[in-house]
């Protein structure tokens, strides 16, 4: 069963500008692309750098440390040196509020 937690407002999350939020003591990166919303673990699976500090180009977040890339829709590693996927979270928007499902699979 889903457990939705409000993490930000739509106004806080600008297009192509990732936002770091803390969810149950874990860092999560939020993304907005073409008025779609996505969330992933914040740490790069390769270098443990903050993805919220990286560059978002389209649906690809670029790790600020070594340039690894991940698809924010799926968490799939798309460019070396990143090779392991990152966790994604279900996201929904109600009114002006952004929610993340915190239930673990």
TrEMBL record:
<keyword id="KW-0223">Dioxygenase</keyword>
<dbReference type="GO" id="GO:0046872">
    <property type="term" value="F:metal ion binding"/>
</dbReference>
<keyword id="KW-0560">Oxidoreductase</keyword>
<keyword id="KW-0479">Metal-binding</keyword>
<dbReference type="GO" id="GO:0051213">
    <property type="term" value="F:dioxygenase activity"/>
</dbReference>
<dbReference type="GO" id="GO:0016705">
    <property type="term" value="F:oxidoreductase activity, acting on paired donors, with incorporation or reduction of molecular oxygen"/>
</dbReference>
<dbReference type="GO" id="GO:0051537">
    <property type="term" value="F:2 iron, 2 sulfur cluster binding"/>
</dbReference>
<keyword id="KW-0001">2Fe-2S</keyword>
<dbReference type="GO" id="GO:0004497">
    <property type="term" value="F:monooxygenase activity"/>
</dbReference>
<dbReference type="InterPro" id="IPR036922">
    <property type="entry name" value="Rieske_2Fe-2S_sf"/>
</dbReference>
<keyword id="KW-0408">Iron</keyword>
<keyword id="KW-0411">Iron-sulfur</keyword>
<protein>
    <submittedName>
        <fullName>3-phenylpropionate/trans-cinnamate dioxygenase ferredoxin subunit</fullName>
    </submittedName>
</protein>
<feature type="domain" description="Rieske">
    <location>
        <begin position="4"/>
        <end position="100"/>
    </location>
</feature>
<dbReference type="InterPro" id="IPR017941">
    <property type="entry name" value="Rieske_2Fe-2S"/>
</dbReference>
<dbReference type="Pfam" id="PF00355">
    <property type="entry name" value="Rieske"/>
</dbReference>
């Amino acid at each position: 069963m889903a457990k939705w937690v409000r993490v930000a407002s739509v106004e806080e999350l600008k297009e192509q500008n990732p936002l770091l939020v803390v969810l149950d003591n874990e860092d999560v990166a939020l993304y907005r692309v073409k008025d779609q919303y996505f969330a992933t673990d914040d740490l790069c699976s390769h270098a443990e750098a903050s993805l919220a500090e990286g560059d978002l180009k389209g649906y690809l977040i670029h790790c600020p440390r070594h340039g690894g890339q991940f698809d924010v829709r799926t968490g799939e590693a798309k460019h070396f040196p990143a090779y392991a996927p990152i966790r994604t979270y279900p996201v929904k928007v109600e009114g002006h509020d952004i929610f993340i499902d915190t239930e673990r699979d």
